[in-house]
Design a protein that fits this description.
With 108 residues, the protein is an all-alpha fold. The chain has a single domain, classed as Tetratricopeptide repeat domain (Serine Threonine Protein Phosphatase 5, Tetratricopeptide repeat, Alpha Horseshoe), CATH 1.25.40.10. Helix content is 80%, strand content 0%. It contains six helices and no strands.
Length: 108
């Protein structure tokens, strides 16, 4: 049952993204669905597309950074996480900044 719900959500989000009408949240949700399905490269491509479309969408930086760490790409993760720290600082978002700094500490 859970698998079916996930595939329906994924299908709906893929259609929305393909239409060009997806907002930042829809792209983020699609990236998260891919990540949950173990489709790391698709997830990363979606996060990159989101960043290109709306670089101010703060949650994507932590998720992309964590994904890249899981993929064994700490240097790429560091780039995302440092950009996220700078964005969180400029937005005055201390909670997000702390989460990003914690993930950054895992980059080695």
């Amino acid at each position: 049952m859970k698998h079916t719900a996930m595939s329906k959500r994924l299908e709906m989000l893929e259609k929305l993204a393909a239409s060009g009408k997806a907002d930042a949240f829809a792209l983020y949700a699609l990236g998260m669905e891919y990540r949950g399905a173990g489709r790391d490269e698709d997830s990363l491509r979606t996060f990159e597309a989101l960043r290109a479309k709306d670089a101010a969408y703060l949650p994507v930086y932590l998720m992309a950074g964590q994904l890249l760490l899981e993929m064994g790409r700490p240097a790429d993760a560091r780039d995302w996480l440092e950009a996220g720290v700078a964005l969180a600082t400029s937005k005055g978002d201390g909670k997000s900044k702390n989460e990003l700094l914690a993930a950054l500490s895992e980059c080695g």
